[in-house]
Design a protein that fits this description.
Number of strands of chain A: 7
CATH class of chain A: Alpha Beta
Mean pLDDT of chain A: 88
Radius of gyration of chain B: 23 Å
Largest sheet of chain A: 5 strands, parallel
Low-confidence stretches of chain B: none
Number of domains of chain A: 1
Number of domains of chain B: 2
Number of strands of chain B: 0
Order of helices and strands of chain B: HHHHHHHHHHHHHHHHHH
Mean pLDDT of chain B: 90
Number of helices of chain A: 18
Structural class of chain A: alpha/beta
Strand order of the largest sheet of chain A: 2-1-3-6-7
Shape of chain B: globular
Helix content of chain B: over 70%
CATH architecture of chain A: 3-Layer(aba) Sandwich
Number of helices of chain B: 18
Strand content of chain A: 5-15%
Radius of gyration of chain A: 30 Å
Strand content of chain B: under 5%
Low-confidence stretches of chain A: 1-34
CATH topology of chain A: Rossmann fold
Oligomer: heterodimer
Largest sheet of chain B: none
Structural class of chain B: mainly alpha
Helix content of chain A: 40-55%
Chain lengths: 386, 473
């Protein structure tokens, strides 16, 4: 083949754009014209999507009705975004409730408002340690209000890195880092949770359902203890109320939860990778550090005119025996008050506060929490010098 | 704004409805720019200004490169663009890391220096949008793209919300031409986009967050030695989690873009069925590996140089690829490990390529599993927050802790086993096809059943809006 023809043929194979004037769009954007287009699989997509929509809607409705038939009702779920919204509501002179689930279940905000003259902000959270929140409020230079701190020794002295500390730290972190999008998501989520009963992450989510599978673990496996099922409702102010099904006399749910508290409140065995003595020494050191850090935080708050009062809320049954055995009052409560010089209300010390029964050994029923709060108010007024 | 959040559901519904309701193409593009900046600003509004500043700067530099009379002047402007982008990335992402290493170096020569800890907040997705923007000036310099006249279009190319914060890394040259003509609303394309979004969210919410992340986090967060089963289970869980997390994000982004009429290229192509590491990198985070190939590996000489230099090029590229993922030496080791894998593979290929047994199914299968195992070993460095954890994990995986602890429940072990087996099987079944081809082969009822299953699983899982892993990069 003559060389000239060969070259001509080769030139013909070049992309067309080299032989023509670029279009206006190409002049604007340059580059090759669009060559890539995602393929769309040939299928009756309109029909498929209608069927999918119908089945998903029907399945969701069925699941909702099923959840309601089991006794579940729409209510908010406690999470770090809701906590952050309440933390944002704290003003310099607010009354704030911090600590664990007993401060969360047992306090009625209406009764506190009537008795203390201000509506308190509920920041106590289930299974969490009080210290990270106390420390955060101490670091907040504007805050000089009153703190009512629920005290459960196992949670209050939980070491760094333990679940109670991590839960509280997660809440505090979310308050400081919550984005506009997360805030908007929380408002949308609250609206949904107030209307849909099956939105119960602990019980009715895929993970919650998988957790319920009765699959035995390997002997010797160090697996985390089971957490209690859903047994409370919560509103936008984070006021928790025990589910009536749990508060009924002889409730099966309450009995089940009682048996969950025992392993949950039993200290886990020391890790295998350090000696028992070293571990115990480390724990002792951590507890001493917690005493000292609590004292420092309270002094900081007091220096600004703020006040802190500790409350040991009612607890009963086998859990009371266990808690009192693991951390006797003298070593925990008495030592804390002595070191911090903060006032404290140990409910068992007062006849009007000690006669309450905790259905699942750890918290008051919704009805009892109102009466209990009413009776607690005079003690709080006295402790806070109001 | 996270794809797996209620905020995004509302945002996406509003933006998509408005977008297709508007008739003017310019109006639609303006809407996408505003929506993209709202999407980004919902994390931290001031960083939206930073995003705009770098974009505007690259727009201007791109024009300068285009106008420059000769190669020398073009190079000068390109260097300015590269320096601007990389210094921004360096300051926000590597500032503290560099200071710490500087302190360590000084300490080695006996100088005590306490650097101030810079309280730098990392702008989300900075590594991605820097590369989006940088591809523009690089391509203009390479002569494959002409500078655009429209700042608005370039702003949209960099900030287009589906791919803005975690990829795929969409090059300006792939996106800008799509802004020339308004796309038309096509029902099948829109619905296929929704199906891709469902699959992406299923991978993220159900597989990554619900079934895999918990065990992976507990294993890598455990302070003591673990037996081999738990160590491997943790690593396999992470291998599955990072794929489902990142591929899930990419698919959601591709689907969302498609519903708006834009075409983004694949970012993953069944990587756990890769046979060899070069094959793995043709299937994993394709937009990053091709970016590094075109803008770094080939300019370094690629494989058109002597074998030792080509090997060094591979290691350099993977070293930088590792560092791109995060400011920590563990990421560097992960990158170097992959660089070494690629070099070893080349050596093995040079011996075995023409052997008749090399292409047989058992050998390919074996090579595939060896690749997967080696990739999992490398994931240990990617996931571990320090070398102590990485070393403890590797010792556990290779039987060094026969009396170590067992921390996973039987249910979690089963979960990891089932998801991993399912994932790898799917990758092997579809490894030679495009995803769309695999869907084409299915009957309509099967497509309906799978889509329904995934949508129901998302609804019933009640995910908790966990951030995507790649957001931190």
């Amino acid at each position: 083949m003559p060389l000239s023809i060969s070259n001509f043929k080769r030139r013909l194979r070049l992309p067309r754009m080299f032989f023509r004037k670029p279009t206006r769009e190409e002049q604007i954007h340059g580059g090759p014209p669009l060559e890539f287009e995602r393929p769309i699989p040939p299928a009756p997509w309109s029909g498929i999507s209608v069927v999918v929509l119908v089945i998903v809607t029907a399945a969701t409705l069925f699941w909702e009705l099923f959840a309601r038939s089991l006794g579940y009702a729409p209510t908010l779920n406690d999470n770090d975004d809701l906590w952050a919204l309440r933390r944002r509501a704290v003003e310099p002179e607010s009354i704030v409730i911090i600590g664990d689930s007993r401060g969360w279940f047992d306090v009625d905000l209406d009764e506190f408002q009537k008795g203390l003259g201000k509506r308190p902000i509920q920041l106590a959270a289930p299974g969490s340690a009080a210290f990270p929140v106390l420390d955060d409020l101490a670091k907040d230079e504007t805050f000089h209000g009153a703190i009512i701190c629920s005290f459960v020794p196992m949670l209050f002295f939980a070491p760094p890195g333990s679940p109670p500390m991590e839960r509280a730290e997660k809440n505090v972190k979310r308050f400081h880092s919550q984005t506009l999008s997360q805030r908007a998501g929380q408002y949308l989520g609250m609206w949904l949770e107030e209307h849909v009963a099956f939105l119960k992450p602990d019980d009715l989510s895929l993970e919650g359902l998988l957790n319920k599978l009765p699959i035995p673990n390997r002997p010797g496996a160090r697996v985390p203890p089971t957490l209690p099922p859903y047994f409370q409702t919560e509103d936008r102010e984070r006021r928790a109320r025990m589910w009536q099904k749990c508060a009924e006399p002889g409730s099966e749910l309450a009995k089940r939860i009682q048996q969950i508290w025992i392993p949950l409140f039993t200290p886990p065995p020391p890790p295998t990778y350090i000696s028992r003595d070293t571990f115990m020494a480390e724990m002792k050191e951590e507890i001493e550090k917690r005493f000292a850090a609590t004292k420092a935080a309270i002094e900081k708050i007091r220096a600004r005119g703020g006040k802190v009062v500790f409350v040991r809320f009612p607890y009963s049954g086998g859990l009371k025996e266990l808690e009192d055995k693991i951390m006797p009052r003298r070593q925990s409560w008495d030592a804390l008050l002595q070191m911090t010089r903060a006032p404290g209300i140990y409910c068992a010390d007062f006849p009007e506060l000690s006669g309450f029964h905790c259905p699942e050994w750890s918290h008051l029923s919704a009805g009892d929490s109102v009466e209990f709060s009413r009776r607690l108010v005079p003690h709080l007024r006295q402790a806070l010098g109001m | 704004m996270l794809f797996n959040s209620l905020t995004f559901v509302v945002f996406y519904a509003v933006v998509t409805t408005l977008y297709w309701s508007l008739s003017g193409w310019n109006l639609r593009k303006n809407l996408l720019v505003v929506a993209s900046y709202i999407f980004y600003g919902a994390w931290n509004p001031p960083f939206a200004a930073l995003l705009f500043a770098t974009t505007a700067m690259d727009f201007w530099l791109g024009r300068q490169i285009g106008k420059a009379p000769d190669r020398r002047h073009k190079k000068r402007w390109l260097v300015a663009s590269v320096c601007m982008n990389l210094s921004m990335l360096g300051f926000f992402k590597y500032g503290n890391f560099l200071l710490q290493n500087f302190q360590w170096l000084l300490a080695r020569v006996g100088i005590t220096y306490q650097p101030p800890h810079l309280d730098i907040l990392l702008p989300v997705g900075i590594s991605f949008y820097t590369f989006h923007s940088l591809s523009y000036t690089l391509d203009i310099y390479r002569g494959v793209l002409q500078p655009t006249r429209s700042l608005r279009d370039f702003v949209l190319a960099v900030s287009f919300f589906p791919q803005l914060v975690a990829g795929p890394i969409v090059r300006a040259g792939d996106f800008l031409p799509q802004l020339a003509h308004p796309p038309r609303l096509k029902a099948n394309q829109f619905l296929w986009g929704l199906a891709l979004m469902t699959l992406g969210l299923f991978e993220k919410i159900v597989l990554a967050d619900t079934l895999l992340s918990g065990p992976a986090d507990r294993v890598f967060g455990y302070a003591g030695p673990l037996v081999a089963l738990d160590s491997w289970a943790g690593v396999l869980a992470f291998a599955g989690q990072i794929f489902c997390d990142f591929a899930g994000y990419s698919l959601t982004a591709i689907g969302a873009a498609l519903t708006l009429g834009f075409h983004l290229k694949d970012n993953f192509r069944f990587p756990y069925a890769a046979i060899g590491f070069s094959d793995f990198w043709r299937r994993w985070h394709i937009s990053l590996s091709t970016f590094l190939r075109d803008y770094l590996y080939i300019p370094l000489g690629g494989n058109q140089v002597k074998p030792p230099r080509a090997a060094a090029n591979l290691v350099i590229v993977m070293f930088l690829g590792g560092l791109w993922h995060g400011a920590a030496w563990t990421f560097v080791v992960w990158g170097l490990l992959h660089g070494s894998y690629l070099v070893i593979e080349r050596v093995i290929r040079s011996f075995s390529e023409k052997k008749p047994w090399a292409g047989t199914f058992p050998v390919r299968l074996l090579a595939g599993f060896a690749t997967y195992a080696a990739v999992c070993v490398a994931w240990v460095f990617f996931r571990a927050s320090d070398f102590t954890i990485a070393s403890r994990m590797l010792t556990g995986m290779f039987g060094g802790h026969p009396n170590g602890d067992m921390i996973l429940t039987t249910r979690e072990l089963l979960q990891i086993g089932i998801v991993t087996a399912g994932l790898i099987s799917m990758h092997w079944v579809m490894r030679d096809d495009a995803f769309e081809t695999a869907v084409t082969k299915l009957p309509a009822w099967a497509v309906t059943a799978i889509w329904t299953f995934m949508a129901c699983a998302i609804v019933f899982t009640q995910g908790t809006s966990n951030a995507f892993i790649y957001f931190q990069f």
